[in-house]
Structure formats: structure tokens, C-alpha cells
């Protein structure tokens, strides 16, 4: 079955559900679009901030220094930037991944490692703070620590998997 048929079927199902429950589907859709637009605008400032921070790190020469000294003959220090940003923002990690794809290629060692880093870890700090604050839990230090440990373990396993299979 083609995925476009599933999308059309889902839209028809939602419209039928709205008609049977006497919901104004267009008004609900408009409200959802307005709320979604507000969300995108609110997120945009954070994404721009992270992208600015990444470009600032790259322009400072720190990455070149790390590549010539610590990461010599291993992998690009841009991976380190992605590893540091990923727990805070999935979107910014995605921007770094796309930057790696455009400069080094998606099938390169760094491209594959970047994909693993982006998929094996999560925006743990962002999600923990957001969801715990939404339900009123104020003591979440241990959960953040555990989330970061899981992310670090995922990073190490990603590096190991890429080295084994490449």
C-alpha cells in the first residue's frame, strides 16, 4: 500500500470523526495551525541561538585545534559539538548533522557517526525539564544525571559500532 493512501485515509477518518461528533473541523484546524505557528516562532529563537553558538565555536578555531591535537586521526571534533548539543536540542543537533552531511558526506565515517549520535540519544535535558515542570515535579536532578549517563553510553556504543562495522 502506498503511503499517500494512508495519509488520505487518515484525513478522511479525522473528517468523518469530526462530522459524527459535530465538530467544526475547519475551525479546529485553524486553531491548531495558530497554536503550531506560535510554537514554531517560540522554538525558532532557541534554534537560532544554538546555531549561533555552533558557528561561534567553529569560527573561534577551537575545533581546528582539537582536530590537530586531541582528535588527530580519529574523527572530526564537530562530533563532539553534536554530542554536547544533543541533550539540549534535537533541532540543533539535526542542524549539525546536516552540516556534517554537506561538508563530509552522509556516507563518510563522520556522516554515519553523526546519524548514530542523532538517533541513539535524545534531548534528555530539554524533555526532563519540560515534562517534569509541566506536571509540577521540582526534584529531577537524579533523572537528568541518569539521562546524561544513558546519552554518554549511547555515544560510546555508537563510536564502537561504527568502528566495528566500518
Task: Summarize the structure in words.
The chain has helices spanning 3-20, 25-60, 62-68, 78-85, 90-104, 109-120, 124-135, 141-165. With 166 residues, it is mostly helical. It folds into 2 domains: 1-60, no CATH class; 72-166, no CATH class. α2 crosses α5 (90-104) and α4 packs antiparallel against α5 (90-104). The longest helix is centred in the first third of the chain and has 36 residues, at 25-60. It starts with a helix and ends with a helix.
Topology overview:
Elements (H helix, E strand, L loop, with lengths): L2 H18 L4 H36 L1 H7 L9 H8 L4 H15 L4 H12 L3 H12 L5 H25 L1
Look at the structure and give the mean pLDDT: 83
Helical content stands at over 70%
Q: Main beta sheet: strand number and arrangement?
A: none
Number of individual domains: 2
Radius of gyration: 21 Å
Helical/strand content category? mainly alpha
Specify the overall morphology. Answer: globular
Descriptive keywords:
single chain; 166 residues; mainly alpha; 2 domains; 8 helices
Overview in brief:
This protein is mostly helical.
Amino acid at each position: 500500500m502506498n503511503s499517500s493512501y494512508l495519509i488520505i485515509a487518515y484525513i478522511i477518518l479525522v473528517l468523518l470523526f469530526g462530522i459524527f461528533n459535530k465538530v467544526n473541523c475547519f475551525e479546529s484546524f485553524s486553531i491548531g495551525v495558530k497554536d503550531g505557528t506560535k510554537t514554531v516562532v517560540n522554538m525558532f529563537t532557541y534554534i537560532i541561538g544554538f546555531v549561533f553558538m555552533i558557528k561561534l565555536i567553529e569560527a573561534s578555531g577551537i575545533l581546528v585545534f582539537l582536530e590537530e591535537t586531541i582528535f588527530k586521526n580519529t574523527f572530526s571534533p564537530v562530533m563532539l559539538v553534536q554530542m554536547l548539543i544533543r541533550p539540549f536540542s534535537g533541532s540543533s543537533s539535526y542542524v549539525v548533522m546536516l552540516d556534517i552531511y554537506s561538508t563530509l558526506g552522509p556516507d563518510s565515517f563522520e556522516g554515519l557517526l553523526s546519524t548514530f549520535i542523532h538517533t541513539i540519544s535524545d534531548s534528555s535535558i530539554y524533555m526532563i525539564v519540560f515534562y517534569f515542570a509541566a506536571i509540577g515535579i521540582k526534584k529531577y536532578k537524579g533523572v537528568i544525571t541518569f539521562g546524561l549517563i544513558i546519552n554518554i553510553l549511547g555515544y560510546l556504543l555508537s563510536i564502537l559500532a561504527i568502528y566495528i562495522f566500518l
